[in-house]
Recover the amino acids of this structure.
């Protein structure tokens, strides 16, 4: 691949490694559909790592059991959900898959106490039902009760990991022409799910989800990146200052840092950062080996 700013065919995924810094997982912007990872040490971006796997859509990542896990859809007509993991961010090992298939990207979230890794995905059939499977050892996966929801595209998943307010939250796009953003929550480890107050927003693709925020692409031709936040655990939502960016597919990020694909033919990976709680945003240097984070 030609050196330069990183490019992604589909939406990126971001996560945090076992040490300092963070990483971005994405699909190469060519016909190989190779999975790539670029990481930083909190200061500089390192050269990207080739994962030696390929996927037909965006990956999902989470840190669990001392390893970074990546879930993805096989790069063939089977749509099989596959897993690979690493302890050092460089050497990846294929893990036992959950014996599931999905028509689009999965979502991953890790619960810490007790340890459990959750995967949400869209059924590989015409129902578009949202399904959830999980594991406590990374080997044996168990399909849990379905949330009784369906989604037009990939879900987003986050675990609060708050002992006082345990919650597994899933955001998704309504499986109809409205493209409404919806949220369902489980407070018992995925045994039951309950629809939450929606943020009164719509999007043409998967949102990025945190405990108290959601970033998404506007449901119109502008592809503008928008952000909504909650201060009362999802009882109400309010649009916050957007980063003045647009993206051709779903963003990824956390409350202070968003990564997205440029809304043009380059498919360049871009990042914007806020250090004042979202009041202002600043475009970061290109995501490229040797550049400052």
């Amino acid at each position: 691949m030609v050196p330069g700013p990183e490019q992604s065919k589909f939406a990126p995924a971001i996560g945090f490694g076992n040490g300092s810094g963070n990483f971005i997982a994405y699909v190469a912007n060519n016909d190989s559909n190779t999975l790539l990872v670029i990481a930083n040490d909190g200061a500089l971006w390192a050269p990207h790592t080739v994962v030696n796997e390929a996927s037909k859509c965006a990956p999902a990542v989470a840190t669990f059991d001392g390893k970074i896990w990546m879930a993805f859809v096989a790069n063939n007509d089977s749509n099989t959900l596959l897993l690979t993991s690493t302890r050092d961010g460089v050497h990846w090992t294929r893990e036992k898959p959950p014996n599931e298939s999905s028509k689009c990207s999965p979502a991953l979230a890790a619960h810490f106490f007790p340890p459990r890794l959750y995967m949400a995905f869209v059924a590989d059939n015409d129902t578009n039902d949202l399904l959830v499977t999980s594991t406590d050892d990374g080997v044996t996966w168990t399909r849990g009760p379905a949330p009784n929801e369906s989604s037009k595209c990939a879900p987003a998943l986050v675990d609060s990991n708050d002992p006082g307010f345990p919650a597994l939250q899933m955001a998704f796009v309504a499986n109809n022409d409205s493209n409404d953003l919806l949220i369902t929550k489980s407070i018992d480890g995925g045994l039951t799910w309950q629809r939450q107050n929606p943020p009164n927003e719509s999007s043409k693709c998967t949102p990025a989800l945190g405990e108290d925020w959601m970033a998404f692409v506007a449901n119109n031709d502008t592809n503008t990146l928008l952000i909504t936040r909650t201060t009362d655990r999802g009882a109400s939502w309010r649009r916050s200052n957007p980063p003045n960016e647009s993206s051709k597919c779903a963003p990824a990020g956390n409350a202070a840092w968003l990564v997205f694909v440029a809304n043009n033919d380059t498919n360049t990976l871009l990042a914007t950062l806020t250090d004042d709680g979202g009041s202002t945003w600043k475009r970061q240097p290109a995501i490229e080996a040797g550049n400052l984070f």
